[in-house]
Amino acid sequence: xxxxxxxxxxxxxxxxxxxxxxxxxxxxxxxxxxxxxxxxxxxxxxxxxxxxxxxxxxxxxxxxxxxxxxxxxxxxxxxxxxxxxxxxxxxxxxxx
Length: 96
Known about the structure:
This protein is 56% helix and 8% strand.
């Protein structure tokens, strides 16, 4: 079976997912990779953030789209920040 990156590329080329869905997949992948890099289980991260384990699991499994408060809480807990980049320009706007 193809890896996730190849699957995403093929699915996007065949019109099976939108670019927005691909962006969401990439975003969640970064969160999941950082959690693993820090050697945290989803349960440990949830405990650290005073959240329910199922919230982290649903986020990583894309079972639902979380609200922005949840996204920023998880990102901050992992020491991540969000950069918004205009596609037509090289300017970046940072959000914490």
